[in-house]
Write a structure and sequence with these properties.
2 domains, Rossmann fold, single chain, 6-stranded mixed sheet, 6-stranded parallel sheet, about 290 residues
């Protein structure tokens, strides 16, 4: 367990961040077991919160949960574990564990630039269920308070970090430096799995960049992947917040068009529950080493 959050706090935190997670529930038990039915924990790709009893049982459950997250299997599964020699636990009972994987946020967004527009934008996208990475070389430009769904990436080589940051992500280039903007455009066009690329600037800047990229041998199809000026043309204004609203509106449309429909988020029906638990005989529990 990496952080001292309860499972219910962890669920709220993951939902706020748009982070995929698995809710684990002890559904049925027989004999002597570490925790009682309804004990819960939350597993993400990097952390786990709360506990269902520790030991090799919990290790195996965490591994199975992360396998589901890695394979994008956002559904439910019942796993049955006898607490014998195979798990290295001497309780002697057995545990049926329900794993409910939730897909988290609608999109990944990478924003290059922590200037006025970038900061205004975070006030909006920080309230959306997206996983946001905010990139700049100037640590002092990042505000003290960062939205819960946002990760800061301070680097002296933003363009060099593009391959590691931008795979399967929507990307915005909002930096203060035109030379860096151009380097980022080139780095992004070399990746086939960047979802969208938005570049802040005027029509003059857009034409200049298009000509430079054309001279570098990029195809028209490649060049057209870059939206510049970024944002909706029907939303006027040049103030940072007005530009941020325009960009956010455009992103919402792009992400809605790109998002694969999620599985329905609902609990198990009684029929499904009986099917899942048909091999698990639920009997009075003997709790070994009970935990609060």
């Amino acid at each position: 367990m990496q952080e001292r959050l309860t499972w219910i706090q962890a669920v709220a935190d993951c939902e706020r961040r748009g982070q995929p997670y698995v809710l684990v529930t002890v559904l049925g038990v027989t004999g002597s077991v570490p925790r009682e039915p309804a004990s819960k924990m939350v597993v993400t790709r990097e952390h786990s919160y709360d506990t269902i009893g520790g030991g090799h049982l919990e290790y195996r459950v965490i591994a199975r949960a992360r396998e589901r997250l890695a394979n994008h299997e956002y559904s439910y599964e019942l796993a049955h574990f006898p607490l014998g020699a195979s798990l290295g636990q001497c309780c002697g009972g057995s545990v049926a564990v329900l794993l409910e994987a939730q897909p988290g946020g609608d999109a990944r967004l990478v924003v290059f630039g922590a200037g006025h527009v970038g900061q205004a934008l975070m006030n909006i996208v920080g309230e959306l269920p997206w996983q946001v990475t905010w990139v700049d070389s100037r640590q002092q430009c990042f505000p003290d308070r960062i939205p819960a769904n946002t990760t800061i990436h301070c680097t002296d080589d933003p363009a060099g970090d593009v391959p590691d940051l931008c795979s399967n992500a929507h990307v915005l280039i909002l930096t203060h430096n035109h030379a860096l903007d151009y380097d980022l455009c080139q780095a992004l066009l070399k990746l086939d799995d960047v979802l969208t690329i938005g570049l802040i600037g005027s029509q003059t800047k857009a034409e200049r960049f298009r000509k430079r990229l054309d001279h570098r041998g990029y195809t028209q199809t490649d060049i057209d992947r870059i939206r510049c000026p970024v944002g909706r043309s029907d939303i006027p204004g040049k103030r940072p917040m007005e530009v941020a609203v325009s960009i956010s509106a455009e992103l919402l449309c792009l992400i809605a068009a790109d998002t694969v429909p999620k599985p329905a988020r609902r609990g198990l029906s009684w029929g499904a529950l009986k099917t899942l638990t048909k091999e698990v005989e639920i009997s009075p529990t003997v709790v070994a080493n009970p935990k609060p």
